[in-house]
# Entry
Amino acid sequence: MTMKTQRRQILTIVTIALAIFMTNLDTSIVNIALPTFVKTFNADTGVVSRVVLVYLLAMVSLLLVFGRISDRIGAVRVFAWGYGVFSLASLLCALSPTIGWLIAFRFLQGVGSAMLLASWGAITVQYLPPEIRGRAFGMITVFGGVGMAIGAPVGGFLIRWLSWEWIFLVNIPPGLAALLLIRLILNDKKPSSEGSSRFDLSGAILSIAGIFCLFLLLNTGQDLGWLSWETLVMGLVAIALLGGFWYRETHCDSPLLNLKIFSKKQLLAGYATTLAVLMIMMGFNFLFPFFFDFVRKLQPQQTGLLLMTFPLISILLSPVSGYLCDKGSPRNVSLTALACIILSAVMFATFGIETSYLFVIFTFIVFGSGLALFFTANTALVMSHSTAATAGTFSALLAAITYLGSALGINFFELIFSLGFPGTGAKDQLANLPAEMLTRGFLNASFFGIALSLAGLFLVMISRELKKTNS
# Structure
């Protein structure tokens, strides 16, 4: 390999990793600014929460559409447009004169995120040789983890010393740098005849509307009440739309999502494992602050330091996971990862009022190790089944399942945790509940986590990566 080729590969990985870094950073950095938006725009918390919600709704509902578009017109073109839309929307967010305009521009920013997330996997498959893809996925995972981890502290610093506008303006320099790199190192490849077939507009509309309703349901069901008429109507509409999408895709010559890919049980198992592990990660992430605050009586900063353990371990080990995938089998790495996740879930089930903090930290190290090994290996495993004509769809579907798993995990773990609690389970009421009752709720959620992780282990045993070939 020449020095020029190696430099091009490194810059390609950096360009892709910047996209994941920016989208993850923006997912977390805005949360710290919500109280500031309440004061700045004189808006209530319900309205301000839409700043976060519309970003996620736009991103999740459009992933499949942009995945298919990237297969039709070329992943690089969608990727470049994603950086452009995301950077422009960031500037417009910073210039927003009212909360309404900020919400609208956050939706546009979510559109840019969907473009980036739907195309980066295809670019990895198309522009990097098989022998380094595992390490590439590992480095990309590191950038994504760093973006998620530093969002809150960086956002707090910018708001404290500059102004809230800077949480959006920081996206512009890396966005422009990435656009320059794309122009210099990525030559847009012509899509295959399969990828450039007719676009399924009806399927796209049904997909967007159905996923939009489903994600809105998962994000508002707790507040509205799972048995309220609004939630039930939203659920029926989501089922009808997604059922219509399934029917359309099975009767269309050029579907938005070729459902035949799910006939390959090895690939289906890879996607299902992603869903299970995301539910475990986000479910426990949601419950940890409640456990350490109300059971162990820690201060928020103490809880924050504890919870930094497994993201840091994950960041450190992701490149190792990538190397192991390149040298061996992503499936075997995933099996090791699930073993770590099962062990950590069992250890979580032992947490109580007297559990030593050394044991807590060790458990988080095991948990973080499992997550680091899994996400890199499973991404490599799933994307090994893609071709140049389907890489965009595979990447978009993986991203959509990631966000769906996050929403499902929070809702299911919260529901199991609060079963048997008196009242609504609001945070101010939880503070008045006995520590033993809260510990029992956390134990029940841990048992659910154990069951999910065992299911994930079974699914990994079914899954297989395809033989590495240049695409």
Remarks:
- The radius of gyration is 22 Å.
- The chain has 19 helices and no strands.
- Residues 424-428 have pLDDT under 50 and may be disordered.
